[in-house]
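Reviewer has doubts. Consider these tokens.
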Amino acid sequence: MDRETMLEKIDTLYRGRQNGDRSAFASVLAPDATFRFVGNASFIQSFPGGRDDGPDQVAAKLFEQIDMLERTLVDAVVEGNRAATHFKSVLRVKGGEPFEHEMFDLWEFDDEGRIIKGSQFQDTAKIIDELDTVAMAKSAYGTPRAADDPVGGMDFDIGSN
């Protein structure tokens, strides 16, 4: 598979993320695809249900709580069936202020050209801080924050089936 096709598939994922359209994932993900957030292990726990939820539930909670307002590809390196991408973005936790954010992703594609594996390196601590800031503000105004699950871990499947 050529560089442009790989980058188009990655862009399809991010457009789906940006638009809250998880159905876009099915066209580019292998059924047994996995994704891993690398960083502060409490990132997934910051979403009610944490690791106990399946990938669709985690993705839905991510989409519900964090908007991706802007996304710009800074650089990409493609070699064989792998791609490395660096994005700058502007995110906003619902009820919070926009903030700049950077992501570095490593992607692997299967023989059918579908994404089989992804790892994302990002400032998870910043996102957790933003989630906590909004939660504290809501709590101060009478909307209590849901308790986080005390489950660790960062890996989850994101299969399209």
Remarks:
- The first strand starts at residue 29 and ends at 38.
- The chain has one domain: 3-157.
- The CA atoms of residues 41 and 152 lie 6 Å apart.
